[in-house]
Amino acid sequence: IIQLYTPLNWFGTYYRMIQNSFIDMENMFELFSEEQEVKDLVNAAPLRFRTGRIEFENVHFSYTDGREILRDVSFTVMPGQTVALVGPSGSGKSTIIRLLFRFYDVKGGGIRIDGQDISTVLQASLRSHIGVVPQDTVLFNDTIRNNIRYGRVSATDEEVEQAAAAADIHERILSFRDALDTETERNIQASLAKVCANRTTIVVAHRLSTVINADQILVLKEGQIVERGRHEELLSKGGIYAGMWQKQQSGNESSSDSDTERKDK
Ligand code: ATP
């Protein structure tokens, strides 16, 4: 990918990365070292991508027997819409993303994209329609040819090098993140809005301010969706989301997400 301009500041870099639908590198490196857990069916066919409708229906999941991590999770993301996953650390947000990539198979229920059960399609084709960007993890399915294929175990050396370079940038962004001022945050939101336009998007939101405009917010607790709705609806409900929001607004913005923070390595 040839860039025709040099970013003038970190926001420029960030924006460029979002535009290129770069990857959440932490997860990617984990992934390279991980053994392939699921296999394609013998007669697996490519995903026939149409509008990008994502459905989770009564999904149950556990990594190891005995401890259920997701319990009866159902939601639909309509084509072009944005859904935000929020909830305390360990509530299952990243697990939902991993299942969408089919790093694991569900134990009950099903996940469909444009009506096709993802366990029946070729993994490579499934993943080729999903991109990830850092900070808050944003997924969108689209035919983005230049996307580095998230989760492609057979990545070339060049791709890994690219990944490493981006990981370095990513790390610097992570350290920069605490210094985010309102203006920068606004800019990031604007660029996210741009990149999410016309793409089905799932945001794992660690800063609640990035979810205000989501079409649907899913609040997870101990593997269950305990609240759902738009920002204003959930605020007026005065439940868990409203509590999280109040907590984040009341000053401890930078360490704000200590309980919704992802582990940065
Ligand atoms: P965070 O905000 O900290 O990223 P999360 O909401 O994304 O948290 P998950 O990463 O989905 O939470 O984890 C949900 C639960 O599954 C946690 O209790 C976690 O310990 C457990 N878990 C995650 N990955 C594995 C794994 N590979 N094997 C076993 N248990 C796991």
UniProtKB/TrEMBL annotation:
Subcellular location: Cell membrane; Early endosome membrane; Endoplasmic reticulum membrane; Endosome membrane
Biased composition (Polar residues): 246-257
Biased composition (Basic and acidic residues): 259-265
Highest taxon listed in the record's lineage: Eukaryota
TM annotation in the entry: 1-15
Annotated ranges, domain ABC transporter: 54-247
Entry's family note: Belongs to the ABC transporter superfamily. ABCB family. Heavy Metal importer (TC 3.A.1.210) subfamily.
Name of this chain's protein: ATP-binding cassette sub-family B member 6
Full protein stretch here: 528 to 792 of 808
